[in-house]
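Q: Predict the assembly, please.
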Amino acid sequence: MVLVDAGGFFPEDDLHEDVAWFLMDAMKLLGTDAAGIGDRDLRFGYARLRDHAKQDQLQLVSANLVLKKTQQPAFEPYIIKKVGNVNVGIFGLISDKADLGPARDTLAAQDPAVTAKRVVAELKKKGATVIVLLSQLGKVETEDLVTAVEGMDVAVAGRGVPLVQKGRQINQTAVVYGGEQGQYLGRTIVTLDATHHAKSTDSDMFILGPDVGEKKEVSSLVQAFEDKFNEKLRVAEKEQAAKQQATAVQNDPDHFLGDEVCGRCHKDEQAQWKTTAHAHAWKTLVDKKKDATPDCIPCHVLGYNKSGGFLNATQSPKLVNVQCESCHGMGTGHDAYSEKAARVTEQTCVTCHTSANSPTFDFAIYEPHVVHHFAGKMPTLPPKPANSSMGGR
Amino acid sequence: MKLFLSRFVLAMIAAVFTWLLVASATPAKTTILAPDKFIVASTTDVKGKTSPCG
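A: Predicted assembly structure:
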């Protein structure tokens, strides 16, 4: 078996730089045989990525990422790993249309198809019997490539690729699709012939749900990192908040009010809301020490980064949790004389209950658990998957 | 840094699990019970995610 990552492992913002290096450390410790490189992974520059990989001894591969000055490979173009009787050639490709960010002055991406033809030939010449492509080309470009270039047995397609449960066979190449954010694992079973070459392939994606289980000692290490990182973010957030002139935002005529103001008139609704998971959404973040993680905060507070909305737990403690205005809109926009009830639609819910955050979300099942004055039979919530942020039992 | 990622850990465990499905458990590392099978376990676009929010 080989364990590979197709790249695109770095976070989307600079605030999470610690996570980027942690991920690389983690990949090495988990025994990743090779990882591809996406434009995302160059966000902190070429030298830092190269040096950190070297320090970690994490094998990064990219066959078409070259130094602009010399046109020499910026990383190892490929590796050949011997597993039993199989010589596995693994190479990476990055899109030549990608913005290389801070590395754009140093690096260039060569034509993926031309590179792939050359590298496949080289790998075969050097004895590779199974060839794996780690693609950061996206879905269409990866499919075009394996259609045009023969000789690859498996292509792991990354960079904005949708999740497809079953891999697709294009010519002799099994293409494995998607599965982002560490929630899925692709498994390709390669059946070998007598010469240890691929005879057939079968690919599937597996969701890493609760049935997979987790190693306690390792999850403790993850938790330790996250706790430390959350604390660092919390300190940075407080420092930033202290510098901000919060009053300017609070004085905006359109702003959030908080449940206390709504509850002055809507007492029954407020009392019912307090029994729901929405009213305790902030605690779930605090318990997991993610209350300073910008990725998580917006769906656990009221009006994050919006006028009069949540700033941080110190400055705006009354705006934690998913409150009245999270679903019904800003209190200052409330028409007190309207005869129509402010009915909430599924559209409102799915801003937070996305497939990634809340894979079991079903409006018909979830809505009765939060709606005011529900009179029917309460549907049972599905079990909360291990990789879900919200909802479920 | 001696730290792991839980989702990567899950990925790894699943990878091992799938391997066991094919080869079944064996005490000897050099013994391969399914010599005609080879597995590629893969992840992609992890995007800096370590674990769910809460």
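Chain A touches chain B through 92 residues (CB under 8 Å). Chain A has twelve helices and twelve strands.
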